[in-house]
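Extended Data, panel c. Modelled sequence:
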Amino acid sequence: MASIGKRPNVLLITCDQWRSDCLSVASHPVVRTPNADALAAEGVLFRRHYGGAAPCSPARACLYTGLYQMNNRVCRNGTPLDARHGNIALAIRALGYDPTLFGYTDVSLDPRRLAPGDPRLKSYEGVLPGFSVRQFLPEHQKPWLSWLQARGVETDAGFPDIHRPVGGEAGNDVTSTPPVYSKDETPTAFLAGEFIRWLGEQERDAPWFAHLSFISPHPPFIVPEPYNTLYDPADGPAFRRAESWQTEAGSHPYLAYDLDRQKRKNFRPGAEGKVRDWGDDNVRAVRALYYGMISEVDAQLGRLWQALKAAGAWDDTVIVLTSDHAELMGDHFMLGKGGFFDGSFHIPLIIRDPRRSGTSGSQVDRFTEAVDILPTLLDLLDQDPPPHLDGFSLKPFLEGEVPKDWRDAAHWEFDFRSIAGGEPERHFGIDSRQCNLAVIRAEKFKYVHFGGGLPALLFDLTKDPGELTNVATDPAYLAARLEFAEKLLAWRATHLDQSLALAELTEDGVVGYVDRGSKGIGQ
């Protein structure tokens, strides 16, 4: 095992479904996040950071492996993560740390490494190989429910009904009525408390690595007092959308499909009907609750900062605060994530390294991606990131430098196949392998390429920042469409699996890079 010497502690925090613009330090007109802002004041805020995929499992696969979806091949919740891939936990463990998890990683384990009857094959909520689990909190939230019960809170409703407003909704209208649990009893507060207790057990001179994976502000969209009324539904930026959902649906076959399948019950338990028909008042009410959930998370971040300072660990801890994917929150008449709009993939990223205070409070306006997190952490721990990773280290930005030949666009992918049910395949009349899209998002243009013969999209972001007008078939934009189609093709060609492509066997043996550190599940 490698010696870790005087390496820093590392705290990796993910907050599920947090939009990048919902930070006061990012100049949001309504949302206030004083504790995230305080972290940014001592670190670096990356203003153009994008997730690599959606929903949770694909997004986290990009973050944890440093590989694009085209290479990690986690397409949906439930797609197994190939055991041959390295990941953030295995890499950190190889450095002598004991990476410790609080929350969840949403990893479906490789079935080829498990016995046919293994119960882990029945859930996509497995733990990323390499992590030690201090507090697991899967979707059923049973550990949290048990903790609530011990505090005297009635939990017979179980998940998800525990997240319903006390007394229920007024029909299908969204109210600000809080749930049965208090602001000190949220799942975020529970996990923060478990981390703080664990922190108190750590030896002062033994560096640690912890991953806090918070579920909020992921739905169900509900939050206790005072956060349920902290924001007025009338406040907030205008929604980015066409004049009607029918117009949105008519703009592309995938949008028509997505708008038709979004159900209110997925965002407020017990609600009936489709999101597209909810109306502005209800969507604004949901948005106010979403903002409140962000402020509730931010309050728990403040609790973490205080605990780190009290433990004497603040000046020895690298902190990464980010999300897996974002949230449309009413844009284009939709809630949730997926598809191709920026609102689903533009996520926060703040990195604070106390050893690099010279850039404290700075903001980076270059395109960065979730696949950059793993190489960045390795670089900050004085390890050369494996060259086959798709991401690049952000360490130069933390030192006030701009890396040479940095990317001029963000890239992400979205796969809408359903191996178990096959509904998208039947709807579009295409094969599972064709149910996908890839995006290249530059400063002025955004190009979306679909599989299965679905029409491509091109948005002129200078004139159309809301992504409302597809100009892919406009003759005036033919050159731009060709340019970005070629850029997307070049991106894919450059990043096709490089695991062994960067090595060559010669008379003198292996020349190049061979990753000898990855271990498969069960090894």
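Residues 359 and 398 are 6 Å apart (CA to CA). This feature is highlighted in the accompanying rendering.
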